[in-house]
Amino acid sequence: MSRHHAVHQALEQLAYLQRALRQAEDPAQLQPLAEANRVSGRNLLHFLALQQHAPADLQPMLHTLGLRGIASGNIAASVARAIDWLSTPQFDPDPLDDHAGLRLRRAEHLFGARRGCARTMVTLPDNAARSPDLLDALLLQDMAVARINCAKGNAAQWHDNAVAVQNAAERTGKPCKRSFELAGPKLRIGDITPRAAVVKWKPERNDAGLILNPVQVQFYITGETAPAKADFAVPIDEAILREAQAGDTLRVKDVRGKRRDLHIGALKDRVLICEAEDTAYVSPGTPVQLRRGAHVICRGHVGDLPQRPGYVALAPGDTLVLMHGSTRGQPAVRRPDGSMAAAILSCALEDVFVHVQRGQRIRFDDGKVEGVIEQADAHRLDIRITQAEGGRVKLKGGRGINLPDTQLPLAALTEADTVALAEVLPDADLLAVSFVQTPADVEQIVELLTQHDASHVGLILKLETASVVRQLPQVLLAALRHPHVAVMIARGDLAAEMGFAALAATQQHILQLCEVAHLPVIWATQVLETMAKKGVPSRAEVSDVVLAGQADCVMLNKGPYIVETLRFLDDLLARNVQTTPSA
């Protein structure tokens, strides 16, 4: 094809596309949007028209003719610019305003100015108000947004945490936004019967049974807060800590009657740091001796221990019963006749039992466990487990449930959410809404914020279902009715809903639509989660963080190593920026 013919064909296609863009500008859809957001809504409608009407060979043809193609940030201007360029050989265009700065300005308004290489949102512990040192450390490490999870605690705790964040911001001189995330419908596992209050420690040994590393056990005063980063923490009588010295020995007689000696290495911040070379099990009341050489200096007991969270272990081939209501879950048990009684879990959400059907899939804990529903009625589901991460998963209470084959007619806001919304708005810079599925969900939320005169509060839409992805353009148009909007990609729930194979494409689809609508994006779920909990990241997490750099804000979950995780995240993204070749 000659260049003259290619130019003529491209101009015909661009003129057709320009007419389609004008026809797509539906006043009925644009008029309800916040005035400042209409440019974004118009561009989103143009993008949908572009997908529908642009010939498949248009972009490659424009590239062949020396044009960069159609910019997604300002589609109408990009098409007009291409027409002018091809129509007038001497055309010398001004730089295209692709509205790239619009999303950046919106992100800064919602999350604050960027400090370092990443804006970070950190989930606060439920009792964050009691930990001012932690809040100071998070802010000094450039936490941009404090996330308060309204699925836990109560209005008084949420308010106390919000005030504590504000006080920490004033102490450190580091501003911080406060985001409240409403619980949404409780599509979760209920409580599981807790396990006995026992602490077990076990040193690492080689194949020959020789000690590789003694295990560190920390003893603290009964009634005080356990050390946050201890692998094993045990409360004992205060008298023992008053008398203890480095080099002394703690002797315990564990629940099996076995005598175990621990070497006291140090006394720090009212905590005894000890080393053990033998496995032991201790429970409340376990006898403890403080010994110096052959002499007993003091006697005491292990104090009250919290009950350990219960779990239900599941592997492929297992049978699971999911009950409607609040019955406490319990593991599978062997009957006297040798047969196995199935493990039991509960779910309080009635719609699950009304709408699921036999043969449909069900997933738990961000897809770590998958099963097929073999029997279903209004009271129980009989499930056969088909997949479990690593071959066996310990499911804990409160973990999420996903039904990828079932459409649940659930509104994003429950009655409890509506009450919570009114309670948190006076403290809120941002309000995150879970389980958004339809444009109607968003319209309801925007209307509520308007009724509460809260147009200044940023609205975060948490995307976690397959249905919201299918309707995402319409959902984003509805969201643009509110002046300040961002999107959170809840990758764990999306993976459980759509499958891990589809997650990468889904993430890119969401990022593309948000770029078109000039909406900031929060990257969430399991970002450096292993590091936050254990202090060391997995290799997969490190690779995953590089993708998080595409977003405007990265959400981290709570954990004893969260301050170190913040530092690591910023350093990792900084290195990626330095080593990424420029285009």
TrEMBL record:
InterPro entries: Pyr_Knase, Pyrv/PenolPyrv_kinase-like_dom, Pyrv_kinase-like_dom_sf, Pyrv_Knase-like_insert_dom_sf, Pyrv_Knase_brl, Pyrv_Knase_insert_dom_sf. Gene3D superfamilies: Phosphoenolpyruvate-binding domains, PK beta-barrel domain-like. GO terms for molecular function: ATP binding; kinase activity; magnesium ion binding; potassium ion binding; pyruvate kinase activity. Its EC number is 2.7.1.40. The keyword Transferase applies. It comes from the Bacteria. It is an enzyme of class 2 (transferase). Pathway: Carbohydrate degradation; glycolysis; pyruvate from D-glyceraldehyde 3-phosphate: step 5/5. Keywords: ATP-binding, Glycolysis, Kinase, Magnesium, Metal-binding, Nucleotide-binding, Pyruvate, Transferase. The keyword NAD does not apply. Pfam families: PK (PF00224). Residues 344-557 form the Pyruvate kinase barrel domain. Belongs to the pyruvate kinase family. This is pyruvate kinase. It comes from Amantichitinum ursilacus. The gene is pyk.
